[in-house]
Specification:
Layout (H helix, E strand, L loop, with lengths): L1 H24 L6 E3 L6 E9 L5 H8 L5 E4 L9 H4 L4 H6 L8 E5 L5 E5 L12 E2 L4 H6 L6 H15 L7 H12 L5 E4 L6 E4 L1 E2 L22 E5 L2 E9 L11 E9 L5 E14 L2 H11 L2 E2 L1 H6 L6 E2 L5 E4 L2 E7 L12 E4 L4 E11 L17 E11 L6 E4 L10 E3 L6 H18 L18 E2 L10 H11 L1 E2 L4 E3 L15 E2 L1 E3 L14 H20 L1
Parallel strand pairs: 1-10, 2-3, 2-13, 3-10, 7-8, 12-26, 13-27, 14-15
Antiparallel strand pairs: 4-5, 6-9, 8-18, 11-12, 12-13, 16-21, 16-25, 17-20, 17-23, 17-24, 18-19, 19-20, 21-22
Length: 543
């Protein structure tokens, strides 16, 4: 008995120590709670749906002056080694379930597997960690009148907390040299800016391989004015008439709150104080899905689902884009360290060229009953080179898969429907072929110079000048780099201040508003966006 009490005492001490360490590294945990602990009704200045890449910096910013509620459908990333370390990246994307895993898998109607974040920090908690600011074209074409001074200050605010200079691995060094040999120049060294040529970008993984997410930006928040509810599934936005009907139109609607459900299935109402707003930051799938479920979308379509129409909005769920990814993987003759994306080649032909290396378990065919299970697992180093189309012209759409908000909507991206995308892919894949022919890559051939690469998966076509064969390779091997965007696009669903057009007190602040892709990786721009819009909103209320 004494031994048991001693053991329990030690166990409790260890638990308290771990909790203290958790709070020291993530002091925002003091205002994060399970949704089951919330009252059935409460009032806030701002209700942010989605504690993700844009939602966390937005909430932290607004909490400096106003009472903020963040409703996140997932749980905490802390304590999950796969989520919080670079080596767990692939495992996080593969170990998924219907309702609880940090990554929620979906497959588009194009047949391409994909994923979305379902955890505090959003997709910044499940991505490859590459950080690079938007390109200039994004600001020119996005439909927003940007204050570029505030944009830069917002980037810097993010970067002080979550961005690091990576230590370049052997594979990334060789990849960098091969890019320069293939003419992707100049070499720009380490930079967070979008620069044509070859560069080393920032990383949200620190020197020890620990991930830092948008949730870390909550450490900027005023803990007296912010609350975060986890496992809170927002089912619909609540509207009320904000103006009387006229002879030409029906009454204008205004968001006054949301209804959300906790893990026990109990319903809660989060309502707005005067001058408050509901802000959707649920991502390129979640925000248009919630608008549709709340009766904001095409009238005939909503009626077909039996959803009462709050506001006819024909473009909700439309103009959805995903950046096609194609590439090859090789098994090198020498072991490689694990490395996610650190180096990028920004070409003049509409492609970004990136690379990664992973250590994966070798899976043998089903074993005969006469062969004993090996006592140790065999691991392989795999090196991948990939190209991503910078600005896909093909557009897709999103529609409901269920009236249950937890069920993924149905998505079609229409990869390569526009011929320009196919031509860009062919150019990108040719560039990969040039990299493989570089002298820098010879160390990865079996037998050295003149030897062969051992390809894992589809090989590049033998004749890289045959555009037809190359186009078929692009179609056959297309995959995603998880940078989909659109669905609530600026100028069609929201205005230049991210307000939903035709509805009061409702905004969308996330990647669903993007009509163009912001550079090599969107996470930097999304975190900046949350800070930027928050600062603009505060200024608008004070003046």
């Amino acid at each position: 008995m004494a031994y048991l009490l001693c053991f329990l005492s030690v166990l409790c001490s260890v638990s308290r120590f771990k909790l203290r360490l958790s709070f020291e590294g993530h002091n925002y945990l003091r205002f994060v709670f399970n949704a089951t602990e919330f009252p059935s009704e409460d009032y806030y200045d701002y209700i942010i749906v989605g504690g993700g890449t844009a939602g966390c910096p937005l909430a932290a910013t607004l909490s400096g002056y106003y009472r903020v509620l963040v409703l996140e459908r997932g749980g905490l990333p802390n304590g999950n080694p796969n989520v919080m370390t670079d080596e767990g990246f692939l495992t996080t994307l593969m170990e998924v379930d219907a309702f609880d895993s940090p990554a929620q898998a979906f497959t588009s109607e194009d047949g391409v597997p994909n994923a979305r974040g379902r955890v505090l920090g959003g997709s910044s908690a499940i991505n490859a960690g590459f950080y690079s600011r938007a390109d200039n074209d994004f600001y020119k074409k996005s439909g927003v009148d940007w204050d570029l001074g505030l944009v830069n200050r917002s980037f810097e605010w993010v970067e002080r907390k979550v961005v690091f200079r990576p230590a370049i691995s052997v594979w990334q060094s060789v990849f960098r040299d091969s890019l320069l040999e293939a003419g992707v120049d100049p070499y720009n060294g380490f930079s967070l800016e979008h620069l044509s040529g070859t560069k080393i970008g920032g990383s949200t993984f620190d020197a020890d391989g620990n991930r830092h997410t948008a949730a870390d930006l909550l450490t900027y928040a005023n803990p007296e004015k912010i609350t975060v509810a986890l496992h809170a599934s927002v089912e619909r936005i609540v509207f009320a008439s904000s103006s009387p009907p006229s002879s030409n139109s029906s009454s204008k609607q205004s968001a006054i709150g949301v209804v959300y459900r906790d893990r026990l299935g109990l319903y809660h109402h989060a309502m707005l104080r005067p001058r408050g707003e509901v802000i959707l930051s649920a991502g390129a799938l979640g925000s248009p899905q919630l608008l549709l479920l709340s009766g904001v979308g095409p009238r005939p379509y909503l009626s077909s689902w039996g959803i009462p129409v709050s506001h006819h909005h024909p473009h909700v769920g439309q103009f959805l884009h995903d950046n096609p990814r194609n590439g090859i993987s090789i098994v090198p003759p020498i072991p490689l360290d694990h490395s996610l994306i650190q180096v990028v080649g920004i070409t003049g032909s509409g492609n970004y060229i990136e690379a990664a290396s992973n250590i994966i378990p070798f899976v043998s065919p089903p074993r005969p009953i006469f062969i004993r299970t090996p006592s140790t697992v065999v691991y392989l180093s795999v090196a991948t080179i990939m190209e991503k189309i910078a600005q896909p012209a093909s557009t897709g759409s999103l529609r409901l898969g269920s009236t249950d908000v937890r069920i993924n909507p149905i998505v079609r991206f229409n990869y390569f429907a526009n011929q320009a995308d196919l031509e860009a892919c062919v150019e990108g894949v040719r560039r990969i072929g040039e990299l493989l022919r570089s002298r820098s890559m010879e160390v990865f051939r079996f037998g050295g110079e003149g030897g062969e690469f051992r390809i894992l998966g589809p090989s590049l076509p033998n004749n890289l000048s045959d555009s037809f064969t190359m186009a078929e390779f692009c179609r056959r091997t297309v995959s995603t780099i998880w940078h989909y965007h659109g669905g609530c696009v600026v100028g069609r669903v929201v205005d230049g201040d991210f307000r939903v057009m035709g509805i009061d007190s409702l905004r969308v602040v996330d990647g669903s508003t993007f009509n163009v892709s912001p550079g090599t990786n969107p996470q930097a721009t999304l975190m900046m966006l949350g800070r930027y819009v928050g600062m603009k909103m505060i200024k608008g209320r004070i003046l």
